[in-house]
Amino acid sequence: MFTLKEMPTATSTLFSSYASFAATTMLIRSIANELIPHPLRLYLNSLFHFLFTPLSSNLTLIIDDYSSNGMTRNQVYDAAEIYLSTKIHTSTKGRLRVSKTHRQKSLMVTIEKDEEINDRFDNIRLKWRFVCIERQDQNEKRCFELTFHKKFKDKVLDSYLPHVLDRASEIRNNERVLKLYNRHCPYDNDSTGGGRGGGGGGWGSINLEHPATFETLAMDPSMKKAIIADLDRFVRRKEFYKKVGKAWKRGYLLYGPPGTGKSSLIAAMANYLKFDIYDLELTTIFSNAELRRVLLSTTNRSILVIEDIDCSMEMKDRHTFDHYEQFDQPSNSKLTLSGLLNLIDGLWSCCGDERIIVFTTNHKDKLDDALLRPGRMDVHINMSYCSGHGFKLLASNYLGLQESCQNPLYHEVHGLIETIHVTPAEVAEMLMKNDDANVALQGLAGFLKRKRIEENEMKNEGVDDHKVNEAKKLKSNDDVSRIHKKMTRVVRRKCVQK
Ligand SMILES: Nc1ncnc2c1ncn2[C@@H]1O[C@H](COP(=O)(O)OP(=O)(O)OP(=O)(O)O)[C@@H](O)[C@H]1O
Ligand SMILES: [Mg+2]
């Protein structure tokens, strides 16, 4: 005991003895570090930790960044990192780490070394701690420590950690920037993109920024519902496909006049499923062997699109070099329809999971029977002219007009559309011409009336219905080929800018 008077002297004595104690400890530690080999030191540390840690009712799981062989990433660790980024709140103190890759839409925020995050799951309180351990080879070993009451061990392993994995893959999917792969684009220099898609197939990519979704697509509502249900069923049927011994792929044939939304539907499917698109122009392929290489270099969870399959296959039996014709050629030196079908049926689908193949055509009647054979393309979708319902959706999207609106022009156009063959592309183009809904609708009404007069004139001149339709297709083709050329220019420009 000290009297008040003696206090300052006592305090300074205490401080000086504490300082000399700390200095001595540091000295001993540094001598020990020099003398005791690293593995023995680690062992002594853990022994010390074991002997002096009070017995606890808690259990701690260690989740390392790499699996025990040190070669492969530990999926639980990666998932935990993503999952915990959603658990960082404004109240989180300490230091945070921020990152973003090419394929992520937004920033990812994670905790720093030794920081902790609390979580709750079904009334279980869990504590995550991020730990970095320096290793002899200068690399850091990272892990998460997950601590909770030991009576919840089974629940954490059977329910909580699977929940963390599911949430992480959901977040990853939403965060992923979709890619449009094309063999005209330069190789993607994003390490995950170019490497993945470019491997041997000559694919380059740009970000897929097509805004089409099922909500913006004007088509028969029941057909739209059926397509969404079909996609959902396909995605969740992994085990089913395995059980019945079928490759996990689904083929769609979209047919209909130009401008009815076939390409838009493909973009909507990709945006809905979060699948990349591989846009394959068969005119750039000269042999079955090349086709096989190109298809094998595509990745899982993707949609392979072959547009205008009727035109593409006009060049069937095309040869690599004309002079090959003089010789007996190996079947792989030319591109054939059967080569394409065999690849799609067999080899390619076997080595890929969750693949969707879409063929589009303006002329289903021109397609080879082999393509239409049952079981080849699982779903045939007829994309047709704009209906009254389609107009309502487009008017709502483009002009913000609702069905209940009192505008007489809206109802006039609705009536006209039901009787005239006009494509959603044509309607959309007219609606975009003016911000003022009245002016835009007036323009569309005039356009529809002119179309009707043209149709009647042709009929009066004795042109039968079939020819009227053919003429409409030609006119429409002209319009759309203009749009198509313009879009190709835009894509090329984007590639060059990149
Ligand atoms: N069903 C639709 N719903 C909403 N917009 C559509 C629809 N169809 C066409 N459009 C509009 O018209 C544009 C062109 O349509 P799209 O390229 O999807 O037609 P397509 O059927 O693929 O034509 P093509 O046969 O020439 O390839 C789209 O970008 C979109 O703005
Ligand atoms: Mg198209």
Automatic annotation (TrEMBL):
Protein keywords: ATP-binding, Hydrolase, Magnesium, Nucleotide-binding
Entry cofactors: Mg(2+)
Annotated ranges, domain AAA+ ATPase: 248-387
Example GO biological process: response to stress
CDD domains, per the entry: RecA-like_BCS1
Region described as Disordered: 459-479
Name of this chain's protein: Putative ATPase, AAA-type, core, AAA-type ATPase domain-containing protein
PANTHER family linked: BCS1 AAA-TYPE ATPASE
GO molecular function: ATP binding; ATP hydrolysis activity
